[in-house]
Amino acid sequence: MAAVDLATHPGHLARRLQQAHWLLWNTMVSEEITSPQFAVLNALVAQPGLDQRTVGERVGLDRSTIAEVITRLSRRGLLDKVRDPQDGRRSLLRPTEEGTRVHRKLTVRTARMNQVFLAPLSAEEQGLFFDLVQRVADAAEGLRNPAEPAAR
Amino acid sequence: MAAVDLATHPGHLARRLQQAHWLLWNTMVSEEITSPQFAVLNALVAQPGLDQRTVGERVGLDRSTIAEVITRLSRRGLLDKVRDPQDGRRSLLRPTEEGTRVHRKLTVRTARMNQVFLAPLSAEEQGLFFDLVQRVADAAEGLRNPAEPAAR
DNA sequence: TCGAATTAGTCAGGGCACTGAGTATTTCGG
DNA sequence: CCGAAATACTCAGTGCCCTGACTAATTCGA
């Protein structure tokens, strides 16, 4: 009676979108390495020697989650983790050779997957898709840090 | 060197979108009841007496996940779960009074939250957002069931 | 009618995501 | 120089999400 239509709820849609992506990733890219794992690997290939916190920030994972992801990647031998001799709090990360190789392989597959994923949209629509989703996500993330204290 | 820009990856964007939504839900709707839990409650308010599988289908959760969500809702006393006397395989679900009350309360808050979430977009853009995201999600979900065997 | 599918649900296992509390290390102010 | 604050990370706890293997119940066909 008083129920709403979930199709009008952007959050529900967001969840479905991610599930859909997960499915496609799993079948077209890899069953071993997940999308967040690839994101971490990608960040380290771009800039080896980053510490955990920074990588997490770059790919959008909190301190706990990034720790888990790194543990798994390290267990698979795709990255090395060493204590920073300059600052004993940090762990410095860099991809292994195997990690670099895997990253290269998945990059190709990921590109193909993205095409399939966005295939239902025209080129202009794809641009729009990125723009709209990014603006919504950015705005909501912005609400987290209540925007620099106005005064001073 | 060979790293890609994650901003061009729809999957990464989808993940960020969902995280953003989760954050907003948590602060504006409820810290107790999650968005998937609300979706299940909503389906049962619309149609009490559904079985687990059907509810899962309606809200987009697989058999295992729907079972967990229902356990939690039931533990909180928001729904009743009874064996179908007509078909001993099924569990029939219906919201309790408390469940209905909670659903009503959250419906109001959810509407407010959705407005804030989509605030960065104009009215037309919001329509577009729904259309684009829905089409991408639908298409990917469609790939799961390889579309009715062409020749019978 | 009786045995082979089919169907609903459970269970174990792996992974993502967040919070709050706790530990170790560094930095900074007095 | 030394203690308080900040910083990086770990750990425990909760919840979502999926697969594959299993159990119980029903249905369907020979």
UniProtKB/TrEMBL annotation, chains A, B:
It comes from the Bacteria. It holds the Pfam family MarR_2. SMART domains: HTH_MARR (SM00347). Transmembrane segments: none annotated. GO terms for molecular function: DNA-binding transcription factor activity. One of its GO terms (biological process) is response to stress. Residues 1-138 form the HTH marR-type domain. InterPro entries: HTH_MarR-typ, MarR/SlyA-like, WH-like_DNA-bd_sf, WH_DNA-bd_sf. This is Transcriptional regulator. It comes from Streptomyces griseoviridis.
